[in-house]
Amino acid sequence: MASKKKPSPNEDLLWKGVLCAAIGVIVLIAPQRIESPQLRDMVAGSSGLGWLALALGAGCLVLWGWRGYQQRKRP
Fold first, then answer.
1. Residue 3 counted as domain residue
2. Which of helix, strand or coil describes residue 72?
3. Would you tell me the crossing angle of helices 9-33 and 37-45 to the nearest 10 degrees?
4. Is there a domain that residue 63 lies in?
5. Is the separation of the CB atoms in 46 and 27 below 8 Å?
6. Is 4 domain-assigned?
7. Closest CA to 25 of 66, 55, 70
8. Is the pLDDT of residue 3 over 70?
9. Domain range for residue 38?
10. 3-state SS string over 6-71?
11. Average pLDDT of span 13-39
12. CB 55 within 8 A of CB 1
């Protein structure tokens, strides 16, 4: 049985950051592209969650960059 390599916590943080940021951007941009008024209002009402997802994604990406910087800084 082949064992799968478990991703490092830093790689996992990058993946989560990119996904959260992408979801946030999609939720914020979607109301401009949706033609149905009811669906547009529903998605526009969740813009706060879009901003939260974008902020969480940006925070994860900053933490990922900081950890990478700290690893490169060590001798």
1. no
2. helix
3. 140
4. yes
5. yes
6. no
7. 55
8. no
9. 9-73
10. CCCHHHHHHHHHHHHHHHHHHHHHHHHHCCCHHHHHHHHHCHHHHHHHHHHHHHHHHHHHHHHHHH
11. 93
12. no
Which two three-digit tokens encode residue 25? 């951007």
Token pair, residue 29, equals 């941009």
Q: Is 74 left (phi over 0), alpha (psi -120 to 50) or beta?
A: beta
Asked whether residue 72 carries a pLDDT value surpassing 80, the answer given is yes
Q: Hey, what are 68's tokens?
A: 């990478």
Radius of gyration, alpha carbons of the chain: 17
How many domains does the chain contain in total?
A: 1
Q: Which residue has the tokens 């998605």?
A: 43
- Is 59 inside any structural domain? yes
